Amino acid sequence: MNTNNHKNNFLLKDGAIIVLSIFIAVILVKTKILTEILISTQKLKLLGSFIAGMFFTSVFTTAPAMVTLGEIARANSIVLTAIFGAMGAVVGDIIIFRFIRDRLSEHLLELAKHQGAGKRFKVLLKLKYFRWLTFLMGGLSIASPFPDELGIGLLGFSKMRTQWFILLSFVFNFIGILLIGLVAKTL
Questions:
Q1: Three-state SS annotation for the chain
Q2: CA 76 to chain centre
Q3: Which residues of 138-161 are buried (b: 16+ CB within 10 A; e: fewer)?
Q4: Predicted TM-score (pTM) of this structure
Q5: Would you say the C-alpha torsion 180, 81, 83, 89 has a positive or negative sign?
């Protein structure tokens, strides 16, 4: 297979996945299905935390998931909400990580080949400090109440092993959900 066709197929697949996910997210928001699912899970407490945690990871579903996790934390244990929410978030993050890890690096390296500063970019990627910086920034992005895609992309870019990613995802999502629960309890 021609390498240009192969690269174009990757870009086409990635574009189709993004368009499909946006389409599904719009349908979920417009039909209020996501809101209904998350509201119904509040009554299930720990399972609700897990499901809301799964939705906590995506740019399209973060806001309703944060509200749901806050409500569950207000009515229950903040720590248990954070533990089960983080477990769900790890599942969501792994799904995103599988799509992003290798493809993002491949696309950026391909882009670097076509730029005048490509050699400098390649050298930067190989620096130990750059890998630690992407690791730290990716973890902080996952801990924040913002969607995890950017953080996952940075961690995938650093070629992190899956088992370390799972641990890091759990810890940072736990911290993020714990903070949401603490804020919700004070309101």
A1: CCHHHHHHHHHHHHHHHHHHHHHHHHHHHHCCHHHHHHHHHHCCCHHHHHHHHHHCCCCCCHHHHHHHHHHHHHHCCHHHHHHHHHHHHHHHHHHHHHHHHHHHHHHHHHHHHCCCCHHHHHHHHHCHHHHHHHHHHHHHHHHCCCCCHHHHHHHHHCCCCHHHHHHHHHHHHHHHHHHHHHHHHHC
A2: 25
A3: bbebbbeeebbbbbbbbbbbbebe
A4: 0.70
A5: negative
Those residues with Cβ within 8 angstroms of residue 135's Cβ, 6 or more apart along the chain or in another chain: 154, 155, 158, 160, 168
The total of other beta-carbon atoms located within 10 Å of residue 129's CB is 8
What is the CA angle 138-140-34, rounded to 5? 85
Residue type, 168: L
> What string of pLDDT tens digits covers the 187 residues of the chain?
455 565 556 667 666 766 776 677 667 667 877 667 766 766 677 888 999 899 888 877 788 888 889 888 988 899 999 999 999 999 998 888 776 655 555 555 555 555 555 555 555 555 556 666 777 778 888 877 676 777 877 776 666 778 888 998 999 899 999 999 999 999 8
